[in-house]
Design brief:
The structure is a single chain. With 204 residues, this protein is an all-alpha fold. It has helices at 2-28, 35-63, 68-77, 79-111, 122-141, 164-196.
Amino acid sequence: FPFLRCLTWIISFFAVTGNLAVLVILLISHRKLTISRFLMCNLGFADLCMGLYLMLIAFMDHYSRHEYYNRATDWQLGPGCGIAGFLIVFAGELSVYTLTVISIERWHTIINAMHVNKRLRMHHVTAMMGVGWGFSLLVALLPLVGVSSYSKVSICLPMDIDTPGSQVYVVAVLILNVVAFIVVCYCYICIYLSIHNPEQSSTR
């Protein structure tokens, strides 16, 4: 579909340039690196990787247009698909994790707005993001060592569920993403209630 091809290039271009701009602005700024700016750097990097994945898929689509059947084996079983798969899984998990940490940090800061000593410090958030990076790297590396596979489909997602280990991997990743979504929703519901409920001492 030409429309989807065009849209893919547009989205990937803006994803790469937009997140590069975010990272450059945040990193070269003379202002102090706050918790919020640190988390935005992590989110920008994750989304930059997602844009690079989409650009790689768009390039391969253009390269193999009308003759994918001649290049499918080389692409899906070669290093290109492995790199693309690693990028999208790493980026996706790091992005979801970072959004979850941002939500928790906002919730914690607003709930404890009048208690400065209870706020999260940079070393707390740095440790949380260290765990997130480790987790995202682990999830992205597992399909490269035989737990599921990036070569099952042409867009290089880990959709191989032929073995019990692969099934556990895919289900675990899906469940963790659902849990992250629930946590984010819970945090913003709590923020909304804390702001709109005048009976709470934190609001006063």
